[in-house]
Amino acid sequence: MAQILAPSTQCQTRITKTSPFATPISSKMWSSLVMKQNKKVARSATFRAMAINSGTINRVEDLLNLDITPFTDSIIAEYIWIGGTGIDVRSKSRTISKPVEHPSELPKWNYDGSSTGQAPGEDTEVILYPQAIFKDPFRGGNNILVICDAYTTQGEPIPTNKRYKAAQIFRNPKVEAEIPWFGIEQEYTLLQTNVKWPLGWPVGGYPGPQGPYYCGAGADKSFGRDISDAHYKACLYAGINISGTNAEVMPGQWEYQVGPSVGTEAADHIWASRYILERITEQAGVVLSLDPKPIEGDWNGAGCHTNYSTKSMREDGGFEVIKKAILNLSLRHKVHMEAYGEGNERRLTGKHETASIDTFSWGIGKRGCSIRVGRETEKNGKGYLEDRRPASNMDPYVVTALLAESTLLWEPTLEAEALAAQKLALKV
User: Which residues cross the membrane (predicted)?
Assistant: First the structure.
């Protein structure tokens, strides 16, 4: 991801009031996303169109696009949370009596945790705490998406609530003083619905070797651009700090970047953007995969590279601070690897622009390292580092908090620091 000079001024906990004339992205726009390459999906869509008369379809579309703003003060809030696998997003809708600007204006809610793998059958109730608000690109108007975290009825964070610990770390005065910025590069793969094979690939076969697909254009090179573009606009509409997007090295694989954002805002925005992408692919009849190595063999995996800097790194002399951070990260490599995503060992092989999961490394401008430092950072003597180890299915609350903890709060012994500095050829 290209370096961005400053984070968004948008606060994660507020939204701008929406014009009463704002409209959602219409269902007709979403319908254009159905991929021609997936013949089974196309045949299914044709069958449905024949089975339901066009008048009924039009009436449903009219209701989906209905602007309720002139007729009621009520809004629809879509409460979103992370399920028991740590990667699945769940949601349900609630009517709120009037528009809101801050999560504190929203009521807590509950759900059946036994149905999401987050509570035992004899005590199923889990409580949702609203934490961040985004405009709803599907319903439009004053309707909102609400990122929540989950607690027991006694007010204790449940084990899968990673946001709670992250918020504690980012509230630490030492961390707050360093104003940590994060720019997260989310890679994902689009799969055909019935065969779970990448979009644009011949069923049971393979496309030509990697090379022409990265940032490519053309019907034989780009598969799923409409989904990527629709997601881009929907995120901007929602107020997500999305900064760019591009086709990736493996055909059918895409990337978007979020940030730079400060503290927990970075992860809130990633989770909101993932939810929106799930909804778009749902409507397009395509399966979203965050598997770090969706296709075995000579194909790139999917990562979630995380760009990171602190106030001290961004100021004059910051390169020495970056090197000290790299030293700390090298000493906690195993801790990070255990937290950077399920199945990451299938991706971090030392091939396809990755480092080995077993060995920590760093380099200037090198994409085959654990940590990459850009040429511009070296030239300016200040800037940011890129952690290339996180998998595409990583939890951004875990990764961002761990980076801050390892580089700002954790202190190695002098002996360990000296040995690591010698091994990595770092002068700190």
Answer: none
Token digits of residue 339: 């937290």
Extract the tokens encoding 152.
């027991």
How many domains does the chain fold into?
2
Whole-prediction pTM: 0.88
Do 290 and 87 meet the contact criterion of CB atoms below 8 Å apart? Answer: yes
Same domain, 261 and 403: yes
Domain residues for the domain of 105 are: 27-159
Domain boundary among 159, 191, 208: 159
User: Is residue 178 within 8 Å of residue 245, measured between CB atoms?
Assistant: no
pLDDT score at 1: 44
End of a domain among 124, 159, 194?
159
pLDDT in tens, 154-182: 999 999 999 999 999 999 999 999 999 99
What is the C-alpha to C-alpha distance for residues 122 and 36, in angstroms, rounded to an integer?
Answer: 47
DSSP H or E segment with residue 281: helix 264-284
